[in-house]
Amino acid sequence: MASDIKRVKGDVLLEIKNLVIDGKSDDEWKPIIRGIDLTLKRGEVLGLIGESGAGKSTLGLAGMGYARPGCRITSGTINFDGIDLVAASEETRRGLWGSRIAYVAQSAAASFNPAHHIIDQTIETAVGHNIMTREKAEADARDLYKRLQLPNPDTIGLRFPHQVSGGQLQRAMTAMAMSCRPDLIIFDEPTTALDVTTQVEVLAAMRNIVEQFNTAAIYITHDLAVVAQMAHRIMVLRYGNLVEEAPTREMLKQPTQEYTKSLWAVRKLQKPETTSDDIILNIDGVDATYGGGTSKVLDNVTVKIPRGTTVAVVGESGSGKSTLARAITGLLPPSKGTISFNGKALPAALANRDRDTLRRIQMIYQSADTALNPRQTVRDIIGRPLEFYLGLKGAANDRRVVQLLENIELNESYIDRYPGEMSGGQKQRISIARALAAEPELIICDEVTSALDQIVQEEILQLLMKLQKETNVTYLFITHDIATVRAISDEIVVMHRGKVVQQGLKSKVLNPPYPAYTELLLSSVPQMDPDWLTGLLAKRSAKV
Amino acid sequence: MHPVLKTVLQRLGLGVLTLFAVSIIIFSSLQMLPGGYAQNILGQGATPETVKNFNHELGLDRPAYVRYVEWIGNAVQGDFGNSYSGTTGTIKRSVSAIIAPRLYNTFFLAAMAAVVAVPLSLLLGVLAALYRNSWYDRIVNSITLTTIAMPEFFIAYLLMFFFAVKHRWFYSLSTVSESTSFWEHVNRATLPALTMTLVIIAHMMRMTRASIINLLASPYIEMAQLKGVSKSQVILRHALPNAWAPIATVIAFNLAYLVVGVVVVEVVYVYPGIGQMMVDAVSSRDMPVVQACALIFAATYILLNLLADIVSITTNPRLLHPK
Question: How confident is the model at residue B95 (pLDDT cuts 50, 70, 90)?
Fold first, then answer.
């Protein structure tokens, strides 16, 4: 039983030695973890950091002795408090899961069963493994909800998962992990799906409770600034190998490996601020609603976009930034207000716009995987707008496709590839080429770098800037990532709950004095400084 | 009003409308059948004169819409008119009186088959999902697929051969009457019920298996495993409650089949159900009986589908407990 074990700080709790894990892809087993050692002491928080495909989730789950379907532990040992998790029976592992080793997943919304009350799921292990009686477990869960600063801790557990917000659900999942007071919790990107302002509260709550119960944790994330707040020690992974390992402060101060330095480097990209009096798109007093007028998502939005510049629209989920894009493209005709393009009013609905108007406004989406047809080759994907808007056919069409491929820094050889045969960054480049093919004046970029790794993001942003220089195209850049905004925008529009909070040049918006919401938003963006979270919480509580 | 109640009432209203539309289709399509009751009963030697008189007596010489309005007007009040064949001189037999015992028999048989088939196929389906891709899974799948692939009459004769001829455990003929006691009725209806069970089990079992397996890739299932929940509890507590909607639809579909699609089984076992009676009524052009049967069948489908919808709604907490 967890409570019988003496919790002595400093004892080794988890020791992984020379671990190799294979993953199955295309019917072949390929290594995803290539011989990693990991040691975790009681009460210690270890950060695992790396880009997608680095194997950080796989390694984290291996700490529970679990390999996802399609993965297998090939060699190495995993020793949890004297128990060999690789050799242990499934029965033994299941006895540990939830009670001594717990897991907190990335998306709480997907990881809570929609069919059961939150509290029943919170106490499922405690009751199911006969660690506590139901009454005791429920009382304890309410206490945990309180410690995690959930609103209405006595009744929130009686709700269904869909009835509470994402940030609350994430804290409820932490309560679920804590319910048996485990020795070890695996946090797998627990705040990645949250807005920055919500993230601050969740990070604070998780850090606090782990400290209170002296629980060891493995914290997996791709976000350096977040791991800097949470972990005592950091391991950097790449392609299933360990790149570097050091205590947090030490690593932040002087990373030794080139790869680590490249992750650490603050964005090099800095665009000099420009503006223009020539307004290409003028959004004037626009309202938009969903559900036949029942919910207003844009409220009197007025935005001016100067030609040849990059205007960033920032805001959290539900701020209406994507809806603004839908209104501009005509997918969601505004219920009030006008949108004029090149000085002329745009017909509200997509169906009423002529082909040339359609050509001039193009869009690039967040996920190239869903925006590109997987059964079309690059030739078809880029060739289609060339034929549709410009009437190019046959050899002329092919020549232009090759030219566009060169513009996006890919070569001719990509022309016959399918989306499935390219990397995430390459696919996003194809999406950009498809938008460029129409020779547009305005491109709406909807979170185009959000699904990409840091280094690839940088490359894509550089490409977009280069293309702007060459063609003087205007970008409306929708994002929730302040770092991206800092790097590429000329002007910034801050949105909150369907309203424009602020619009202005980057230098103005990102510097004080701030409107209240802009300040909240900017101050919530995690910083590399490991004392950032502590400092921010102190500052905020001093204000109250 | 609770949104669920509202939806149910809406569906019920729609069901009534559908039933009306069906009644028009039934009535008008029966008008298109060649010949009529008079020709059928009077035979080839009948003179046009006698046929005309006969039709006049039955009121069949009036325009179709008048007869429709009269029929549907009475039907709404529960009166399905009088059977042609039951009418001789002044003695009239109402359709309801003819149908009632047959309908009882049909529902009796359907209920017997359902009581066995539904729990059994759910159990087999859950076990198949739990031990997916094992020998058990494969064997259950092939057996149920075999029984659904065989014609019903063939299964019926096979069962009869083994359980009534080789081993004299059950009756090969399922004749029952109103004086048959309940247990005797069960005994006599066992073989037809078993036949129908074998026919419908595959569909329901495979849907149960598929909709559970479909959910096993969900993050909340992985979460449940990593909370140390046992395999069977993962399926029963975490997957099944979210899998009801498609399963309920398939169950409703198969239950409806038990009521309306059993003519062949009834004929093989000489079981006095409504299917056989409807076939007889069609061949003798006894329109009031045919119309009443068709309307009952349509109502069965509509009601069972409504039930499936209610199950889908009430098992979905997003609909049952809105934000």
Answer: confident
Indicate if the alpha-carbon torsion angle A225, A226, A230, A236 is positive or negative: negative
pLDDT band at residue B315 using 50, 70 and 90 as cut-offs: confident
Kindly identify which residue of chain B lies nearest to residue A159, measuring between CA atoms: B321
Q: Would A526 be classed as within a structural domain?
A: no
A193 and A334 inside one domain: no
What are the helix (H) ranges across A353-453?
355-360, 368-371, 378-390, 394-407, 424-437
Choose the mutation target among A1, A58, A111, A186 for the interface with B, i.e. most B CBs under 10 Å.
A111
Least confident of A50-54, A152-156, A205-209, A508-512: A50-54
Residue A1 DSSP class: -
Runs of H (alpha helix) within A133-217: 134-147, 166-178, 196-212
> Which residues of chain A are at the B interface, by a Cβ-Cβ cutoff of 8 Å?
64, 66, 68, 94-99, 102-103, 105, 107, 110-116, 124-125, 128-129, 160, 162-163, 176
For residue B318, which residues of chain A lie inside 8 Å, CB to CB? 114, 160, 162
Q: Which residue has the tokens 């090939």?
A: A74
Q: Does the beta-carbon distance from A128 to B238 stay under 8 Å?
A: no
The pLDDT tens digits for A432-462 are 999 999 999 999 999 898 878 877 888 899 8
Query: A236 vs chain B: nearest CA distance in angstroms?
Result: 25
A242-287: pLDDT as tens digits: 999 999 999 888 888 888 887 766 566 777 888 888 999 999 999 9
Would the CB atoms of B225 and A97 count as touching at under 8 Å?
yes
Q: What is the pLDDT of residue A490?
A: 93
Reduced to 3 states (helix: H, G, I; strand: E, B; else coil), residue A500 is strand
3-state secondary structure at position A32: strand
Size of interface A-B (CB pairs under 8 A): 75
* Mutate which: A93, A124, A185, vs B, most B CBs within 10 A: A124
Query: With 60 as the cut, is the pLDDT of residue A5 above it?
Result: no
Q: From A62, which residue of chain B is nearest by alpha-carbon distance?
A: B226
Report if residue A1 sits inside a domain. no
Mutant choice from B212, B221, B227, B238 vs A, greatest count of A C-beta within 10 A: B227
Number of domains in chain A: 2
CATH number of the domain within which A471 lies: 3.40.50.300
Same domain, residue pair A367 and A416 = yes
Using CB atoms, pick whichever of A103, A113, A114 lies closest to residue B226. Answer: A103
Q: Select the residue of A99, A114, A125 nearest B318 (Cβ to Cβ).
A: A114
Domains of chain B: 105-286 (1.10.3720.10)
Residue A13, SS3?
Answer: strand
Q: CB distance B228–A114 less than 8 Å?
A: no
B242 in reach of chain A (CB within 8 A): yes
Tell me: do A127 and A67 sit in the same domain: yes
CA distance B148 to B162: 19
pLDDT tens sequence across A314-351: 988 888 888 899 999 999 999 999 999 999 999 988 88
Type of residue found at B227: K
Same domain, A373 and A254: no
The average pLDDT across A129-150 equals 91
> What is the span of the domain harbouring residue A490?
279-511
A310 and A256 assigned to the same domain: no
Residue of B221, B223, B237, B313 to mutate, interface with A, max A Cβ within 10 Å = B223
Residue A210 CB-density burial (10 A; 0-12 exposed, 13-18 middle, 19+ buried): buried
Residue with tokens 């820094």: A409
Cα–Cα distance measured from residue B186 to residue B180, given in angstroms and rounded to the nearest whole number: 10
Domain termination site, one of A237, A264, A291: A264
Instruction: Find out whether B293 and B281 touch, Cβ atoms under 8 Å.
Output: yes
d(CA A161, nearest CA chain B) in Å? 9
Residues A152 and A98 in one domain: yes
Token pair of B159, please? 């069962």
